[in-house]
Write a structure and sequence with these properties.
This protein is an all-alpha fold and about 190 residues long. The protein has a domain at about 135-193. The protein has helices at about 5-130, 135-165, 170-190.
């Protein structure tokens, strides 16, 4: 038997090969499409996962930012309160210091007034002494006068004694001496303070 002509055989074989290749190509194309779709789904899933991770990270950053802002506001408020308290305490301390200084000045003025009073009393005492005490030159003159009177009285007594020697064992001398002493005592009494 004679088979189909070569040309027909080649053409049939070629058609069969073409169909087989087209089927394989279709299968590869379907596989590639499935692979591309799977890759696209994986990319979309990765995108979604990345977006979710970014959203979660943004949320964490936002929460941290808000927490830091709240902490900073609290610290600022605490610092402000502390400063106000410090200012109040400092103001009270300054007021207390001023009051203490005023009291100290009043006491110092009172002490100065008392000291000046005592100084004025001392000056008055010195003025009184200056008015009442005799100057040295006047005392010297009075003492010289008393000494002269005593000398004169002694001469008179001596004269009287020489005239009356023996009158009652020297009572004349005693009376003269007592008189001279009384004169000296009266002089010192008059000059004394």
């Amino acid at each position: 038997m004679a088979g189909p002509p070569l040309e027909q055989y080649v053409e049939t074989r070629f058609n069969l090969l073409t169909v087989a290749l087209e089927e394989k190509l279709a299968a590869h194309t379907a596989t590639l499409r499935a692979l591309v779709e799977a890759q696209q789904a994986a990319v979309n899933a990765a995108k979604l996962s990345a977006e979710l991770a970014l959203a979660a990270q943004d949320l964490r950053y936002q929460q941290r930012f808000e927490a830091q802002s709240d902490a900073l506001a609290a610290a600022f408020l605490s610092q402000q309160t502390a400063m106000q308290t410090a200012f109040v305490v400092a103001e009270k301390a300054v007021q207390a210091a001023l009051a203490a200084a005023d009291r100290a000045v009043s006491k110092a003025e009172l002490a100065a007034d008392k000291r000046f009073e005592s100084v004025n009393e001392f000056r008055k005492t010195l003025d009184d002494q200056q008015r009442t005490l005799m100057p040295r030159s006047e005392v010297d003159v009075l003492i010289r006068g008393v000494v002269e009177k005593i000398s004169a009285n002694k001469e008179v007594i001596d004269n009287i004694a020489s005239e009356r020697i023996g009158i009652k064992g020297g009572w004349g001398y005693a009376v003269g001496l007592i008189g001279a002493m009384a004169a000296i005592w009266a002089l010192f009494k008059a000059l004394g303070p």
